[in-house]
Amino acid sequence: MDLNRAIKMVIEALQENLEDTADESKKLDISQASGETRLFGGGGLVDSMGVVILLSDLEDKLDEEFDIQVSLASDSAMSRTRSPFRTVNSLAGFIVSIVDQECAS
């Protein structure tokens, strides 16, 4: 998997859940999401429950599209100095590294 495909996957997962938010400004931000879009933390699009839902949706997509069962909310992800859930780019990069590890196993 390459980074651009992972970025697209993250943005699609965000956009699939647009109807779940009542906040119109967040809906607009999600509809215009890019690699630089902040996901979590100050000014992020999703709260902690939103991250859980997003990661679950992405895990399902990875299973469906690539037949890879992974846990994106692993101990290694949670213990990093810089959270891989901060931006679309950082999450996409994390997904690429996880998929690469799984494919190499």
Describe the structure.
Helix 1 packs across helix 3 (48-66) and helix 1 (3-16) crosses helix 5 (88-104). The relative contact order is 0.20. The chain has one domain (3-104): Non-ribosomal Peptide Synthetase Peptidyl Carrier Protein, Chain A, CATH 1.10.1200.10. With 105 residues, the chain is mostly helical. It has helices spanning 3-16, 24-31, 48-66, 75-78, 88-104.
Q: What key phrases describe this protein's structure?
A:
mainly alpha, Non-ribosomal Peptide Synthetase Peptidyl Carrier Protein, Chain A, 5 helices, 0% strand, globular
CATH class: Mainly Alpha
User: Helix and strand string, N-terminal first?
Assistant: HHHHH
Q: In one word, what is the shape?
A: globular
Going by helix content, strand content and strand pairing, the class is: mainly alpha
Instruction: Let me know the number of strands.
Output: 0
What is the CATH architecture descriptor?
A: Orthogonal Bundle
Number of domains: 1
CATH superfamily: ACP-like
Q: End-to-end distance, in Å?
A: 15 Å
